[in-house]
Design a protein that fits this description.
Layout lengths: L6 E6 L6 H6 L1 H9 L3 E8 L6 H16 L2 E7 L5 H23 L3 E5 L1 H14 L2 E6 L3 H7 L8 H16 L2 E4 L5 H4 L3 H4 L4 E4 L13 H11 L5 E6 L8 H14 L3 E6 L4 H10 L7 E4 L6 H7 L2 E4 L13 H8 L4 E4 L5 H6 L4 E4 L4 H15 L2 H15 L2 H18 L3
Parallel strand pairs: 1-2, 1-4, 2-3, 4-5, 5-6, 6-7, 8-9, 8-11, 9-10, 11-12, 12-13
Length: 416
């Protein structure tokens, strides 16, 4: 079979005006639409979408998506109080989704994460459509690991119940990592359930995230990095991201490379970074912290020599695939990352594109700093190798869209 004119309702609890929707939803839908899928997209948009500027941007995006054959609808996202707000959104999604399924003669619903899966499961039972549960992470376990919920709390029990029903009812399942699937498939909901499965990591648009010699020279001149070894961290700080450990790592790195410079690309809370660096005796000439527009991030990554990301290792993060890995590699950067996050261990040990930190202690930081020296000595070969791995494992078109297309074909063709 082919995907030509197959009618799919895609439900996302993330807004399409948000960075995540822009990078992790729209590129896939455009590629699959080009392969023939007729998409109806239902998203939940945050409050800024209802401002004058947000409405103008949504009108532009609606036209852009329509030009790619994607019919975009959205509902308002409600945040507080948490449980009633989410329940309201689920009911709104079921009501609105029911109209879309009938009007568009939908054959399959693609639910991006747990809340959309709750909506999709109700629609599947009502209309008999196929359903894909795109497990973007273990939602309940993430809240526990983050210290927000207890395992005996009502929100945790409700979310795990939703997860069990969605897994048991799905015709297809997507996980972000290889590492989590052997664990999930042994859960009671899947033990006797013959379900189609694909591993599709968080990919990047490698047409955007690529090394540019011109950008490197320009940004390094702007930042005064001509003779510096630049390590970059790109993204939010604190929370899952171990900001203090990354600052500690840089202190150790400087002992081995006196010309090291830390480039922090983060949208907010810059004073937090300044405080951390001052506490560690790092002068302002040895680091830069700035906010960058999404379109400028690749140019700053091109200016760096290595990409850093320390993320809290815990059970729920075995299901996580950080997009920044793909973005760093796409721009030719070797990685310094920690173990225990998704498939990160294999990415380093099998693909040989950086250094793996096994504990957040100075000895491990020193080992990683020494290991990265071998990459620094051969910058062109390092960039080529990193790029090759990015194209093979994390290209939104060659990897992400192709695997989704394969999953769609198998689920839609399965008459069982």
């Amino acid at each position: 079979m082919t995907l030509s004119n197959r009618r799919v309702l895609y439900i996302s609890y993330n807004g399409m005006l948000d960075p995540l929707g822009q990078s992790q939803v729209i590129p896939y839908l455009k590629e699959l639409s080009g392969a023939g899928v007729s998409f109806t997209l239902l998203s939940f948009e945050r409050s800024h979408a209802y401002t004058r500027e947000g409405r103008e941007r949504s009108d532009e995006l609606r036209g852009e998506l329509a030009a790619s054959g994607i019919d975009w609808h959205w509902l308002r996202y409600h945040k507080t109080p948490s449980l009633p707000a989410t329940s309201y959104d689920v009911l709104s999604g079921i009501r609105y989704g029911s109209r879309l399924v009938r009007r568009k003669q939908i054959e399959m619903i693609h639910a991006r994460s747990h809340i959309p899966a709750t909506i999709a499961l109700r629609l599947k039972r009502r209309f008999g459509v196929k359903m894909i549960f795109d497990v973007r992470g273990l939602m309940a376990d993430e809240y526990v690991d983050a210290g927000h919920w207890q395992k005996d709390s009502v929100p945790y029990r409700i979310t795990k119940s939703v997860e069990r029903r969605a897994l048991a009812g799905a015709d297809g399942i997507v996980t972000l990592t290889e590492r989590i699937w052997p664990i999930i498939k042994e859960w009671e909901a899947l033990r006797n359930h013959n379900v189609v499965h694909e591993v599709i990591p968080c990919c990047a648009d490698l047409e955007l995230f690529r090394f540019s010699r011109g950008d490197r020279d320009r940004r390094r001149t702007e930042l005064g990095l001509q003779d510096r070894f630049a390590i970059v961290y790109s993204g939010s700080i604190d929370g899952w991201y171990l900001t203090e450990s990354m600052a500690d790592f840089f202190v150790t790195l400087r002992k081995q490379k006196g010309n090291a410079h830390f480039l922090w690309l983060t949208p907010a809370r810059h004073e937090r970074v300044h405080d951390l660096m001052r506490e560690r005796g790092v002068g302002e000439s040895d680091y830069t912290v700035l906010a960058s527009t999404p379109r400028d991030v690749p140019s700053y990554l091109s200016a760096a020599d290595v990409g850093l990301a320390f993320i809290k290792p815990c059970f729920s993060k075995l299901a996580s695939s950080p997009t920044k890995y793909a973005e760093y590699l796409g721009c030719g950067l070797p990685l310094i990352i920690n173990e225990g996050v998704g498939d990160s261990d294999a990415l380093i040990t099998r693909e040989k594109v950086g250094a793996l930190v096994r504990a957040f202690v100075e000895l491990e930081y020193a080992k990683a700093s020494a290991a990265i020296e071998s990459f620094a000595g051969y910058p062109e070969q390092t960039r080529q190798r990193a790029r090759e791995v990015a194209e093979r494992l994390f290209d939104v078109r060659r990897v992400g869209a192709e695997r989704y297309a394969r999953l769609y074909e198998t689920v839609l063709d399965n008459t069982g």
